[in-house]
Amino acid sequence: MSGRSAPEGPVEPAVPRHGRMPRHGAWQTYGKIAAAVVAVLAVSATAVVGYAAVDLLATAAVKPPVKLESETILENVPDIGAMEGGLNFLLVGSDKRPEDGAFGDPEEESAVLNDVTMLLHISQDHSHVEVVSFPRDLLIDVPECIDPNDPEGERLPELYGAKMNEVLSWGGFGCVAATIEQLTGVQIPVGGIVEFYGVAALSTAIGGVDVCVVDRIDDDYTGLHLDPGTHSLQGMDALAFLRTRHGVGDGSDLGRISNQQTFLASLMRTMQGSGTLGDPVKLYSIAKAVLSNMTLSTALQNPAQLMSIARTLQDIDLSKIAFVQYPTVYTEGFSAVVPAESAQVLNAALVADHPVALDPNATTDADFGTVTDPNAPAQPEAPAPEAPATDAPATAAPTTPPADALPPDVTGQTAADVRCSSANSG
Questions:
Q1: Taking the mean position of all CA atoms in its chain, how far away is CA 300?
Q2: What is the mean pLDDT of the chain?
Q3: Running DSSP on this structure, what letter comes out for residue 134?
Q4: Three-state SS letters, 233-298
Q5: Alpha-carbon distances, residue 257 vs 46, 166, 260 (angstroms)
Q6: β pairing state of 159-163 and 190-194
Q7: Region annotation Disordered: residue ranges (predicted)?
Q8: Which CATH code of 3.30.365.10, 3.20.20.120, 3.30.420.590, 3.40.50.720 fits the domain covering 30-198+254-356?
Q9: How far is residue 356's CA from residue 349's CA, in Å, rounded to a whole number?
Q10: Which residues pair with 296 in a beta bridge?
């Protein structure tokens, strides 16, 4: 990304839609606040799900919040109870090196890039969730953005053909959100930034996340060394698994995204299957660990907003939680990727709030993809539906639309799918 001069001709931003999270009024007494359980959610290479007591607000306050322009849609709406309607949540994983030097010199090796950019879409009827990962080398247009170093001053100009992972350092978290809004057509009112130690702390608080490996993985860059089989990863091992690029798939960032999706799917199964979402003690420890490593948008400083998100997500069918890689094709020279034609199909489904159906062979057939767990038991065929009696009353039409079938070049998996990572043979 070079210079800050405005290119010729303005970019007309897409009209963002969707993303309203209602609230139900303020808490009545401090006693209720002190006794309440707060929820914190983020899904990514550093995904976060958890509750905590109100004193976690002090932990969250350690990191100043970031402000999103679209969070104004949350004003003057209720703030307690299960979330009504849908929501779009942006999670950014920053490669900013910690001050302790554990991942290299923070002054020399840290450019504050958004190497992980994920959009969490919760449907209006709470029947399905899509988690879309955007490749770090995706070439995109960036709209005018508020300058985080001078919020009241002149806006930063548009950029054309910039790499996705450069947007955070260019215009801050709000600019990343505005860029994803323009790219997809949805509106993003909330989100957060998480750094290296966040995922390590989360995976430890959960007690480990199971991952499946089909052949030995060796990556000296991240220190990841795994034999074939299933491993329960936590702490720095979990972080290495999510960071590895050279060790999995085809060694590309696309392979890393596919690898991260296997981890996130397992994380969701663990959270639902272990009863974590109903255990205040576990949720408190998770939230406490993650808030110390995460910067939330200002709208999420309200604990009621966090509680609403968690209450919405805890009962969604795992098969209705889809992790999708934003469809792209390589540029000449394979130095970057650009949106594929099928990206419009995914964008349309998000804007229309439709569930999506992934081609079951897409990820397996991709050079960078993961493989189906060879040890997973075969799924029984669903029984054929019985024909209704001739005098049976007509059934009401379903309120949730049928899933939009994504083209075969769109890769991903659901949280119910158990997939395994394969080693980079190159």
A1: 16
A2: 77
A3: -
A4: ECHHHHHHHHHCCCCECCCCHHHHHHHHHHHHHHHHHHHHHCCHHHCHHHHHHHHHHHHCCEEEEH
A5: 12, 18, 5
A6: unpaired
A7: 1-22, 361-426
A8: 3.30.420.590
A9: 7
A10: 192
- The helix/strand count (H/E) of the chain reads as 10, 21
The per-residue pLDDT for range 376-402, each reduced to its tens digit, is: 765 545 444 454 455 545 544 446 678
The pair phi, psi for residue 56, each rounded to 5°, is -70, -20
Burial environment of residue 334 by CB neighbours within 10 A (0 to 12, 13 to 18, 19 or more): exposed
Burial class (CB in 10 A: 0-12, 13-18, 19+), 391: exposed
Poorest-pLDDT segment among 9-18, 29-38, 264-273, 408-417: 29-38
Q: What is the spatial distance between Cα 215 and Cα 387, in angstroms, rounded to a whole number?
A: 47
Tokens 């400083």 map to which residue? 301
Task: Give the number of other Cβ atoms within 10 Å of residue 426's Cβ.
Answer: 7
CB 272 within 8 A of CB 314: yes
User: Could you read off the pLDDT of 196-225 as tens digits, one per residue?
Assistant: 777 777 788 888 999 999 999 999 988 999
Taking alpha carbons only, the member of 149, 241, 134 closest to residue 182 is: 134
273 Cβ contact partners less than 8 Å away, ≥ 6 residues apart: none
Instruction: Give CA–CA dist 297/131, Å, rounded.
Output: 19
Residue 292's identity, in one-letter code, is S
Hey, how many other C-beta atoms are within 10 angstroms of the C-beta on 270? 18
